[in-house]
Amino acid sequence: MAWFRGTSVSTEPPSEAGVLLVNLGTPAAPTYGAIRRYLAAFLGDRRVVEACPAYWYPILYGPILTFRPARTARLYRSVWTPEGSPLLVNSARLAAGLQARLGEPARTRVELAMTYGEPSMATALERLIAARVRSLTVLPLYPQYSGSTTGAVFDVLARELARYRHVPALRFVSDYHDHPAYIDALAASVREAFAAHGRSHLVLSNHGVPVKYVAEGDPYRTQVERTNALVAAALGLGPDEWSQTYQSRFGPTEWLRPSTDERLAELAREGVRSVTVATPSFAVDCLETLEEIGIASRERFLAAGGERFTLVPALNDAASHVAALAAIVEPAAR
User: pTM value?
Assistant: First the structure.
């Protein structure tokens, strides 16, 4: 019996376990057309924008997808690398590091997928099931759970697995917001920044979500607060030495506050001349960390009177990050 449609059974021994890392996704290129296709998939997902389609789709396929791709393309070009999109490059390096940590693919096979774009969930699952993995751990690269991110991963995963007759034993990691190895890795990255650039007020900037999502039961804010408090405690910071903020607002809906830019301007007005900014909700560097924080927020802080702005890189493929993810998946990948 074939393990999936149209493909013969492999004669190779089955892999003991599979690990599927999933990130949000990225345009294939910093061009109008590629970004329009990506935004259509991303903003057309009802997990992301929970508005009535009859109201939302005319706006999305009208002004948003007409005008926004040109502006977004300029932003992507400011951070695009010779290897491609920072999110894809960093996610691929992280997956490769985790594969090396867990051992040969014949023992534990690691694949990377995106919720929107390439490499697709369909392709990654085809590879894993062709390898006849006995069990599969799915790890969305979102430390804190939100229906708009982790929930969207589950939707795509379920939709793709529904096509298969034989599904391996599944473990879905909903979050790892307070996992000790993850907290240790975050704290270590801030310590490195302090050692290199000097200790300063720490701003922990997290991706935002609409307030109504939290009001309706999304645990994201509670988990963000827990992560940030643990990091501050690990660093021995007092309440006046760090701030928690949210970034990446979109549209007229009320989002979680305080916003990163508002807090940075406030700190500058209060006489804080140096800040260190870390982004705990982002597993790897991407447009939101490199451009929104590293360029735009830096400029706003300096324009408000600040003098030194240090951006802590996301954990990316750092050894501590790889070790943390291995600790999360290894109980099922043994």
Answer: 0.93
